[in-house]
Amino acid sequence: MISDTNLIETVSEEAELLQTENNTEQRENQDVSDNLTSTTNNRPNQGKNVGNPPAPRRRVIGDRPRLVDRTVSEGQLLVPKKNLRQQDSEEDHPDFYEFRAKDNVMKTYWLQQTFMSWWALRSTPFAADLLPCKGGAGLTTKFLKEVLEVILEYVQGTFDRSSKILEFHHPNELRERLHLEIPDKAENLDQILQDCQNTLKYCVHTGHPRYFNQLSTGLDVISMAGEWLTAAANTNMFTYEIAPVFTLMERAILKKMREIIGYKDGDGIFAPGGAISNLYAVMCARHKYVPSCKRRGLSGAPNLVLFTSEHSHFSLRRAAAILGIGTDNVVYIDTDKRGKMSLEDLENKIQQAIARGDKPFFVNATAGTTVLGAFDPLNAVADICEKYDLWMHVDGAWGGGVLMSRKHRHKLDGIHRADSVTWNPHKLMGVLLQCSAILIKEDGILEDCNSMRAPYLFQQDKHYDVSYDTGDKTMQCGRHVDVFKFWLMWRAKGTRGFENHVNKLFELAGYLLEKLKSREGFKLVHEKPEHTNVCYWYIPPSLRAMEEGTEKQLLLHKVAPAIKARMMATGTLMVGYQPLGDKVNFFRMVFSNPAATKADVDFLLDETERLGRDL
Ligand SMILES: Cc1ncc(COP(=O)(O)O)c(C=O)c1O
């Protein structure tokens, strides 16, 4: 290892040597960016990561580009000639450089500068060296390209079936590996890149072809590009003033979605998820039936009651809690074997509420229930809502995407009669999270119930048409741009592309269903799912011969969680499980992943068996 004193001498000698050389012109004309892309790897922080250092390769946000950048941007006449690396090993050590000075005067300066720079070389650049720092353009480009490389590696790994879906660690262990503490002093950019790499390393690859765990799966490349661009634009949806493009896009997309539903007119907004979209629906209905609520609250108002099936999403119940309706005033409606709402029970319970002196005001019909994928009979529910003057909402968070398929959209017949619809393109349609819309039949109600007319933001005397300032009809103030990735994806696929995507998912579900019917050890929860949800039990050999009864059910209840734990430990597959009513834990396969194929379905069955046959 060279000491500091040695280094000064070494540098001086090198400088003398340089002076005698004669190819200045050529070097001076060399593009500085060449040097920016060279691979100096002087990383003082390397090895600092706790646990197993995850970085298989060294990052190249090195010290040299920083030096070159500064040298050039400050207008000095120093041009790096070449990197005299003392060794090419992976060990950390200061690299040495030759620099060509234009004249002797500069040479003196250069010596000093080089020495000082040597100290700088001991640390890699920091965020403060990036734009808007003067001269930070090159380094910023380099840094972002490095980040992109990290992301691309992740994306490629995501689609590689031989790669793991996740590297599971229990929270305590993962906390250690992640290095989560927030420092007082800035970390350098190498460390920041390392953090990026480390973060993705422990993320679940939700785009992996064998990831079926949630309703939102897959990694659409165009949608991801849209999300990147959205981040670069970094704007806020509340006013046209600062989001002119995205505001117009949102209008166009919401109009298209309303047309697909069958609304002639209406309104809508992108919301942070289906739960919030459902909250919007209940809020609009509350406003319609108790308009005074906006000012006076619910005191003195009739006791509002909402109806939803026992298989509906919990967000309806939560909406009742949030909006002051109260969870006791959520009335659950029975379902049939397939999970569809019973019309008879709905009407009975509405009548019972009226008889109690309560005020029924809202019925939620689910298009695609979360677990079984059932579609409530929308036309019949609409008839009941009309009869009793109730707001009809369709929670199509999961099933809304089925509207894109001419083959399957009949499952939502009658949806145009609903007062509001929740539709999450981030589920079945594969748009990246988050992307959820609430569509409302009546124009103006959203604005009516939410507007606060904040004069600092929604000035009415702006020089453009302020009806394009959508922020005042939302529950939020600032709002993320969720529309762009969807718009871009729709452009890239076309409506027919989305239709093919949805049809393919249904085909895969049908394929799995047929396989399950004939495969030993698997049992369907019900044989005619309406959506791409296919629910089943895996029954290990040890339980197959057992007599039906409580004891067997108790043991079967433990099978899915045990297999799931093994799935996560091996990282080969991820499928969700849950109990439902009196049914013990079963697997819920849901198809929304565009990367999945029939071979992945075969793998699912083989792997489930492999992981569970000894239980
Ligand atoms: C039927 C239904 N509605 C609403 C939601 C909530 O959607 P989000 O997770 O986007 O809030 C879900 C989520 O799974 C759902 O299945």
TrEMBL record:
Residues 18-66 are annotated as: Disordered. Belongs to the group II decarboxylase family. InterPro entries: PyrdxlP-dep_de-COase, PyrdxlP-dep_Trfase, PyrdxlP-dep_Trfase_major, Pyridoxal-P_BS. GO terms for biological process: gamma-aminobutyric acid biosynthetic process. PROSITE patterns: DDC_GAD_HDC_YDC (PS00392). Pfam families: Pyridoxal_deC (PF00282). One of its GO terms (molecular function) is pyridoxal phosphate binding. Residues 32-49 have a biased composition (Polar residues). Keywords: Decarboxylase, Lyase, Pyridoxal phosphate. Its cofactor is pyridoxal 5'-phosphate. This is Glutamate decarboxylase. The modification N6-(pyridoxal phosphate)lysine is found at K427. CDD domains: DOPA_deC_like (cd06450). Homodimer. One of its GO terms (cellular component) is cytoplasm. SUPFAM superfamilies: PLP-dependent transferases (SSF53383). It comes from Patiria miniata. The keyword Amino-acid biosynthesis does not apply. It comes from the Eukaryota.
